[in-house]
Amino acid sequence: MPKRFRLTRRFPVAMTEDGYRGLKRFAHEAGLDEGEALSFLFEHFDSVTDEDALSHRLRLFNAELEARKR
Description:
70 residues, 67% helix, single chain, globular, mainly alpha, 4 helices
């Protein structure tokens, strides 16, 4: 029996414009709203990410993070 989809947590999220556009595009293509899309991505995080690519992208993101905050 499938799990009932219940949104149990709400939290403020700060995102870059590029990140939000990507989320909106993914949600639209999947036929979901942004909250449902985020839930899907985090519930299935290990199966939708490539561990090596994730580590590399995270290092790049962290390297330029301070400059992007200014």
